[in-house]
Write a structure and sequence with these properties.
heterodimer; A: globular; B: alpha/beta; 2 domains; binds zinc ion
Chain lengths: 335, 235
């Protein structure tokens, strides 16, 4: 058995978790900084770093206590090294190295994007590559071919905004506050997804994505309606925008499935918590007879469980990092 | 009583293991960008050279600033994790106190000045006391010229220490009754950190890891801009 502490501080969540053998969750602690960044309408890097350093020890201690363990009993200490905000990453990596030097427990630096993918193994031990991965979050929109464990090929990615970013921007336009994603999801449930015709950018045009035009289309539809003295239902805007975004994500994912002949699809990242995307992907996979994996909502966002689950693969291979481990703010995946 | 001490508030990062009488091992690096990768291997090196098992230490003393923000966070996060693992208390030390403590034999008031970039310095005033120093001002962020005004009101000769004093040598050295300390007093040292840690620990001025936060003295740019915007719209 292998007990791993996973630490995550790449953006605006301070998180730690203790996970056994990559899938048995003994504890999962996430301290969100939502209220700190919310007045600014987005994550402020310096404030994120300040908050991480204040909370990091409490979050780690809480995760250890809830799991009924202590640092010397661990088999590895895993931490996100990137991609993410440099100042934020440094807090988690410094803490992980401190735990390691004081205990002799080895260190594993984890790619945050790989960890999002490994959220899938926590609830579904039968998730196995090869698979097509749709990784969608506030910072990333990627279509990946996962050939085997820890091996990714980038098929396509966004050329401008990440899809989560588009959700946040439209949320702000509609005055829904920050972050906009979950708010749009909720509001869209009461709206008509066919009420307004929004474009499907790069539809049937390769694996790359583009979402800045879609956001602009929402702005224009609001302006046009205003000029004509019509008032649009906010729920219809949310539902129509969401449908356009989901259509594009789904179309490209299923095209990749057909092109590669792979029989496994997995979602990953914060936007994988979107209920419409979850439903549509599941339906499409059933139709095409493809296995579909979607992490539990609680594991879609940034968390320590996924970091530990991902590190478990590295630990199994005896692949550790040394105490001079640094941060890698623009760490890539599959490129 | 052994302590591990960490100071990464200036570009001269430092780690030491020892007591108030003796530095058993120390290491330092003079590049701010290198501190993230330097710190933990340096701790391991010091423990190894001093032949000390970290489980023998009584506490972890960390320089919590003011100073370079990134360095402070590297030092404080590392120190917290070590204290948590070893279940020992932390002894928070302030960078300006460390600089003044190193100059405690001077029989005159001491001003500690650290470069805060953007044309400002972090500053505080101290009075020597038997065996130490006592702070007699708030920790503050000021321009060198603002400090010149304060220095003119001093009735005794004063000593200026810290890299902020060196940086603005030309501004301060012209003043009568003012001596500017040299580079030996520019950064926190192993001796001063272990000495101050020991005396604070004896006075039970220690804390659990959750109570230790960096001392920034300057808001983030976003908060500064936000404040200005709120003022300008009269909120
Ligand atoms: Zn993420």
């Amino acid at each position: 058995m292998s007990l791993i502490l996973g630490i995550e501080t790449s953006c605006d969540e301070t998180a730690a978790a203790v996970v056994e053998d990559g899938r048995i969750v003994h504890s999962d602690v996430v301290a969100t900084q939502y209220e700190i960044h919310s007045p600014f309408g987005g994550v402020v890097p310096e404030l994120a770093a300040r908050s991480h350093v204040e909370r990091i020890d409490t979050v780690i201690q809480d995760a250890l206590t809830a799991a009924g363990t202590s640092v010397p009993e661990l088999d590895a200490i895993a931490v996100t090294v990137g991609p993410g905000l440099a100042g934020a990453l440094l807090v988690g990596v410094s803490a992980a190295k401190g735990l390691s030097v004081a205990s002799g427990v080895p260190l594993v630096g984890v790619n945050h994007l790989e960890a999002h993918v490994y959220a899938n193994v926590v609830d579904s031990p039968d998730f196995k590559p090869p698979a097509i991965i749709l990784l969608v979050s506030g910072g990333h929109t990627m279509l990946l071919r996962m050939a085997e464990d820890l091996s990714f090929e980038l098929l396509g990615q966004t050329l401008d905004d990440a899809v989560g970013e588009a959700f946040d921007k439209v949320g702000r336009l509609l005055g829904l506050g920050y972050p906009g994603g979950p708010m749009i999801d909720r509001l869209a449930g009461q709206g008509d997804p066919r009420a307004i015709k929004y474009p499907r950018p790069l539809w049937k045009d390769g694996y790359d994505f583009s979402f800045s035009g879609l956001k602009t289309a929402v702005v224009q539809s609001l302006r046009r309606a205003q000029a004509r003295g019509i008032s649009l239902e906010e729920s219809d805007i949310a539902a129509s925008f969401q449908e356009a975004a989901v259509d594009v994500l789904l179309e490209k994912t299923m095209t990749a499935v057909r092109d590669t002949g792979l029989k496994v699809v997995a979602l990953a990242g914060g936007v994988a918590a979107n209920s419409r995307l979850r439903l549509r992907v599941m339906e499409a996979c059933v139709q095409e007879d493809v296995a579909c994996f979607i992490p539990d909502r609680s594991l879609c966002g940034d968390n320590g469980v996924s970091i530990a689950a991902c590190a478990y693969r590295r630990v199994a291979q005896g692949d550790y990092d040394s105490l001079d481990l640094g941060v890698w703010p623009s760490y890539r995946l599959g490129a | 009583m052994l302590f591990l001490t960490i100071s990464t508030s200036t570009e001269q990062g430092m780690v030491a293991i020892g007591s108030s009488e003796r530095v058993l091992a120390s290491a330092s690096v003079g590049k701010a960008q290198a501190q993230g990768e330097f710190l933990t291997p340096a701790i391991e090196f010091c423990a190894c050279q001093a032949q000390v098992d970290l489980r023998q230490i009584a506490g972890v003393a960390v320089d919590r600033g003011p100073g370079l923000f990134t360095g402070l966070r590297i030092g404080v996060a590392t120190a917290k994790a070590i204290a948590l693992t070893l279940s020992v208390p932390m002894v928070p030390l302030e960078s300006l106190d460390l600089l003044a403590f190193a100059a405690r034999v001077a029989r005159r008031p001491i001003w500690s000045l650290l470069d805060a970039r953007r044309g400002e310095v972090f500053a505080a005033r101290y009075r020597p006391t038997p065996g130490g120093v006592e702070r007699s001002s708030d920790y503050r962020l000021a321009t060198p010229n603002a400090l010149v005004g304060d220095l003119m009101t001093e009735t005794e000769d004063v000593l200026l220490v810290g890299n902020g004093a060196c940086q603005y040598y030309d501004v301060f050295s012209r003043l009568s009754g003012v001596t500017v300390g040299d580079v030996g007093l520019a950064h926190p040292t192993a001796e001063s950190a272990l000495g101050l840690a020991c005396s604070r620990f004896t006075l039970e001025e220690f804390s659990p890891p959750s109570g230790v936060v960096p001392l920034y003295l300057r808001k983030s740019d976003a908060e500064i801009k936000w404040g200005t915007r709120r003022e300008s719209i009269g909120v």
